[in-house]
């Protein structure tokens, strides 16, 4: 009987990570006919609510209004997929563990960017600085060339785009993926990380303050 070797597991990825991933059929249904028409989750977006259900609409508004009182930073999650840069704006990001070093971000199941990021197996989280609201909006837009006019350089390990002028970045491999209602919780194993001051390839000096999102609007610490 012929032996079959196990598929290569990217550095930092849990050996059983792929068991937590959605099926290829489901991924294909997310991608649709135009695989590179991305629909990432923007800072102000949430799950769709039936237009003919007033009770559900009221509950959704209440949920967003209360949760909007929690100020968060704004990130852009990037990757290289099929030789092209992919990006999505995401405010749902957090550190998870020091040992091993893990972080997470939470894309919507309807995101077209996420299947492309998942396909690459690696991603980079860029922390946006004050003054980068326009960049956040561009990366949250649909049906446009998100990287038009955007300066970036490859991350040290994954090659994912590190956006110029950001405060810091965290370079990761996909460690595990878990379903959570209408979203997915993506756990990343940190492969490399740096502040802008430590990154020799950063040419734009970023603002010292972060870009924040609070009650449906961009803010900063000032």
Describe this structure in words.
- It is a single chain.
- This protein is α+β, with helices and mostly antiparallel strands.
- It is built from 4 helices and 12 strands; from the N terminus they run ααβββββαβαββββββ.
- It is globular and about 50 Å long.
- Residues 1-7 and 22-47 have low confidence and may be disordered.
Provide a brief overview of the structure.
With 222 residues, the protein is α+β, with helices and mostly antiparallel strands. The protein has helices spanning 24-31, 54-67, 113-120, 133-140; strands at residues 72-73, 75-81, 84-90, 93-97, 102-105, 122-127, 152-154, 161-163, 168-180, 183-195, 212-214, 217-219.
Task: Supply the key terms.
222 residues; alpha+beta; seven-stranded antiparallel beta sheet; three-stranded antiparallel beta sheet; 4 helices
Topology summary:
Blueprint: H1 24-31, H2 54-67, E1 72-73, E2 75-81, E3 84-90, E4 93-97, E5 102-105, H3 113-120, E6 122-127, H4 133-140, E7 152-154, E8 161-163, E9 168-180, E10 183-195, E11 212-214, E12 217-219
Antiparallel strand pairs: 1-11, 2-3, 2-6, 4-5, 5-10, 6-9, 7-8, 9-10, 11-12
The structure class reads alpha+beta
Write down the overall geometry.
Answer: globular
Radius of gyration over C-alpha positions, nearest whole angstrom: 18 Å
Total number of beta strands: 12
Overall pLDDT confidence: 81
Considering DSSP H and I runs of 4 or more, what fraction of the residues is helical? Answer: 10-25%
Major β-sheet, in short? 7 strands, antiparallel
Question: H/E order of the elements?
Answer: HHEEEEEHEHEEEEEE
Strand order of the largest sheet: 3-2-6-9-10-5-4
Beta-strand percent range: 25-35%
- List low-pLDDT spans: 1-7, 22-47
The helix count comes to 4
Rounded to the nearest angstrom, the distance between the terminal CA atoms is 68 Å
């Amino acid at each position: 009987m012929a032996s079959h070797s196990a598929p290569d597991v990217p550095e930092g990825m849990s050996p059983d990570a792929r068991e937590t991933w959605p099926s290829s059929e489901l991924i294909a249904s997310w991608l649709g006919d135009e695989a590179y028409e991305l629909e990432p989750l923007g800072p102000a977006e949430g799950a769709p609510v039936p237009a003919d259900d007033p009770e559900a609409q009221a509950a959704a508004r209440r949920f967003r209004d209360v949760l909007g009182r929690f100020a968060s930073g704004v990130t852009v999650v990037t990757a290289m997929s099929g030789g092209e840069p992919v990006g999505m704006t995401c405010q749902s990001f957090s550190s998870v563990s020091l040992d091993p070093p893990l972080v997470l971000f939470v894309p919507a199941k309807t995101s077209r960017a996420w299947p492309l990021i998942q396909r690459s197996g690696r991603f980079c989280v860029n922390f946006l600085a004050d003054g980068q609201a326009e960049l956040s909006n561009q990366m949250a837009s649909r049906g446009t060339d998100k990287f038009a006019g955007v300066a970036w350089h490859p991350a040290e390990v994954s090659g994912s785009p590190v956006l110029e002028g950001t405060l810091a970045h965290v370079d990761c491999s996909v460690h595990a993926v878990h379903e959570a209602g209408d979203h997915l919780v993506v756990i990343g194993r940190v492969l490399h990380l740096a502040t802008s001051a430590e990154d020799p390839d950063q040419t734009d000096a970023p603002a010292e303050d972060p870009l924040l999102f609070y009650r449906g609007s961009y803010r900063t610490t000032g």
